[in-house]
Structures are given as structure tokens and as C-alpha cells.
Amino acid sequence: MCRGALQGATVSLTPLNYVTLILYLVGIGWLLSLYPQCKREWRTRRWKLTTGKVIHSELQEFVSTAGEGTDSEIIPRIVYEYSVSGEKFFSGRITKGSLHWYGIFGAKSETYAARRFIDQYSIGDEIDVWYNPRNPEDAVLVPGLSQDTIAKVVAGIGFLVVFTLEILG
User: pTM for the whole thing?
Assistant: First the structure.
């Protein structure tokens, strides 16, 4: 029944259809390019857990003058020590992904989020540390996907949903 309805039908591609198709392919490319990062970050969820100790904890402001004007970002800096099989290691890695604070109300909420995070890691505190059992020097405080990677995946899926609806409708 559908076969007969489709026979003789022609599809005409307008410039808008071409743009939509190109943007749809960009969305697919975007998601495919994120796969290695997602895989690398996701693996940290299966790493071994040990305890560590915070030896340095502060908020640092990074100022960028690239482009027009200046842009600053507040980043937590945490250095910790931990032991695996009697060997002591030091790390400053918080997550495998990028560390960005997505404050929905601008820079003040980003600073607030970074401050709330750093308040959990005072000097001398005993903390959970996830380390790679194949390479114990590789460790993180927050395993799994980073906020930055999640935001990029959501944006890629958003591209696909919007442009799929455009193509179909």
C-alpha cells in the first residue's frame, strides 16, 4: 500500500534542504568527534578507589585576552597525594575532561559554583581518589563524564533533533 503511494513521487531539494542536511551532518560529525573523549572519561568510573589527602587547594583566575576584550575564568586548583601499593603519588587532575563551570546566571554563578566545589577540598582533608590500575600516576577526583563533555553531547543531540524534525517536516 505504501509502495504504490510512493511510486512516482519526486523529492525536490531546495537550498534550505541542503543547508539543513549539511547541518544535520555537522551534528553527526560533532557527536562522532566526541566519542573518544566520552570513552576516555567514562572509563574513569571503573578505576580503583583509594584515599588521598589534599595538600593544596585554591581558586585561580585565568585571564584571556584572545579576541575582543578580556575574559576571565575561575578554576579550582587542587593538589593531592595518594598511595597505591605503598608508593606515593601526587596529582592535580580533578577530572579527565575540561573543567568549566556552566553558571546559568553568568560569571557570578560560575564563581559561586567553583567556590562551592573548592570548599569540599580543604588542605589536610582525606578524600576519595580514583586511579588507573594500569597506570597509578593517572588519577582523578571526579570520575565519569565532565560537565563540559555532557554539555557538548547535549548540543550535538540537539542539532540532530532539530534538523531531523526539519528534514522530516
Answer: 0.71
